[in-house]
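Lab meeting prep.
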Amino acid sequence: MGGQTMNRKLRLSLQILFVLGLALWLINSQCGGNGTPPPADAGLYHTYAEINQELHALAAAHPQIARVQSIGKSVENRDLWAIKISDNVAQDEQEATVDFLGCHHAREWISVEV
């Protein structure tokens, strides 16, 4: 029994190492194969300013149904933006809502893209 458990653990460990190696290989190939990550301005992720600009542009393009509003401040005193989309955006009506949340933990850069 002990040998079978050890064999399973060894197989699982090798599978995990293979997957991790494959992931590293894919990341390296995305970086041009030289291990250097793409530059920060490669258009992969949006900055706070870019998100701010895009949200306000969306609301300006659709003022009948969209409104941007600050729902508070971050610890860095930045506005936390929300965009309201409604058939009657100027009114706060008693109706069902759906909320999509993102970027609410520090240093979780990918959640901004939510």
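Slide two material, second protein:
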Amino acid sequence: MKSVSQSALLLEQNFLMYDGKGPVPEPIHAYLSSNWKDLRNLPKDSPPLISKALNRWYVPDPNRSADLEKLREKALLKEFSEYQQTPRKLKVFRLEAVRAGFKNAFLQQDYQTIIEVAAKLPDAVLQEDTQLMLFRDNAVTRSGST
């Protein structure tokens, strides 16, 4: 059981999973088109190719900015989840991780997470960063909290 969780952790940290958004990444496209005859010569945005590629892991291309951005965002969200777990005020944190976490929570309409993490931040940080303040204020408004 431990080796399964370690494998999952390694996958999570070093690879990307295709989520069906955008064209199929080249490594997955190459694999599928070489192993399934009915998927050969299909464009990367073809629905049958996308459905077969969905939830497959692939090695991120360091020359492709979209892959690098996904890896970066995944790392920032992981750091943000650590901020969520901490019960006390945050003294040391990365502003970009908080921004990424607030953005992700807002897109998922998880306003309570934004409110709770914002309460752990120093007031000066919220006052100086208009983006964080907007996320917090909108979360309070949309959740009905005061």
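Talking points for slide two:
The two ends are 45 Å apart (CA to CA).
The longest strand covers residues 16-17.
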